[in-house]
Amino acid sequence: MHRDRVKDIIKASKKAVRRNFKRYPLTIKDAKKNRKKDDVVFIAFYYPENNYESKTTFDFPYRQLLPKKIEGLLAAGRSAIIQPPQTRVRWIVFLMGQAAGAAAALAVKRDVTPRQLNVKELQSLLHDKYQVCLGEEGRLR
User: Fold this and answer.
1) How far apart are CA 8 and CA 77, in angstroms?
2) Is the pLDDT of residue 1 over 50?
3) What pLDDT is recorded for position 69?
4) φ and ψ at 42, to 5 degrees?
5) 51-74: buried (b, 16+ CB within 10 Å) or exposed (e) per residue?
6) Cα–Cα distance between 58 and 36 in angstroms, integer?
């Protein structure tokens, strides 16, 4: 009985952590309205209702990778995604990992936490060294 109760608590806490973990949870409304983010780390796209003739692009923000209350941590992949499910595709997870890895390396180099990192410097690194699309040229510089 005790063991089952512990499993239930762990299961419930995992759901609560994922729901409340992100500093900024990206929503389906953000994706549909193509809201521009100053802290964009890559441009993503999805196909609404699996309609492959109509592609919608949206900014993926750096703050999506930052936990609310935990300093010194970046979350990428499944741990960084709450919704929409369209952002769970492999290439988006790859770009999240690239952005998180570049941010971690830059934070160590500058001796700051990921939250204190200069996002413009990260964007320059991603764009110039790794050729990551960040939107219209000059938008973020």
Assistant:
1) 25
2) no
3) 78
4) -170, 160
5) eeeeeeebbbbbbbbbbeeeeebb
6) 7
